[in-house]
Amino acid sequence: MKNIIIITGASSGIGEEFALQMDDYFSNVDEFWLIARRREKLEELAGCLYHRTRILAMDITKDAQLDRLEDTLMEQGGVVRMLVNCAGYGILGDFASQDRAKALGMIRTNCQALTELTHRMIPYMRPGSRILQMASSAAFLPQPDFAVYAATKAYVLSFSRALGEELKRAGIYVTSICPGPVDTPFFDIAEQTGASLAVKKYTMVGPEKVVALALKDSYHKKPVSVCGLPMKALRVLAKLCPHSVLFRAIDLLKQAENE
Length: 259
Prior knowledge:
Blueprint: E1 2-8, H1 13-25, E2 31-36, H2 39-46, E3 52-57, H3 63-76, E4 78-85, H4 100-121, E5 130-134, H5 147-167, E6 173-177, H6 186-190, H7 198-202, H8 207-219, E7 224-225, H9 229-240, H10 243-258
Parallel strand pairs: 1-2, 1-4, 2-3, 4-5, 5-6, 6-7
Helix pairs in contact: 1-8, 4-5
């Protein structure tokens, strides 16, 4: 029986950082299973890890490839000790002007694939197993010009909170990770179709900090991990203030930046 950590979106950014940090601390794990579409990037990462790795170059939105993953897990007699769902992307810009395929792709990757993979992996978990789901501070309130992405992350946060309550009875713990802007290739894709508020760049943190806190919060069985005081404040504001007030504040910031 193999103890396995599965990481999606492992070829770059936060997923890659999870692999690097967990490689140092999880001595009781037999293998890391690294999932992303870019095999060459996964091979580079595997070369940096002490743990034995299995590279699964696949698209998690494809049912046939998820079938292959599950078949491999069954054949290996694997126990999933941690599932880290980091695969996802965002597209900035006015919704009506966005490429429809890319907008729907966000829903398939950020929501549908995450949900299906989680459902498939739970039977291979045991008491003490953990699930880390990559949400975002964008989940805290609707975001004009980031409408679909924020909605997908609101789904991840809501789903993860409810799932965590269900799985506690089985001794499996779920943590939803809600960072603000992170210094990763994420914005290289997101800003191809629009620009984010400049103020977001001032609240940007490194993936090392986000991952270190997420692992700590997961260890302490916290349902949500929010990195940084600005994002903690945003979470509180989103609960206390009417969204119309926050929308107006965002409009004023946009106007100030354009002047």
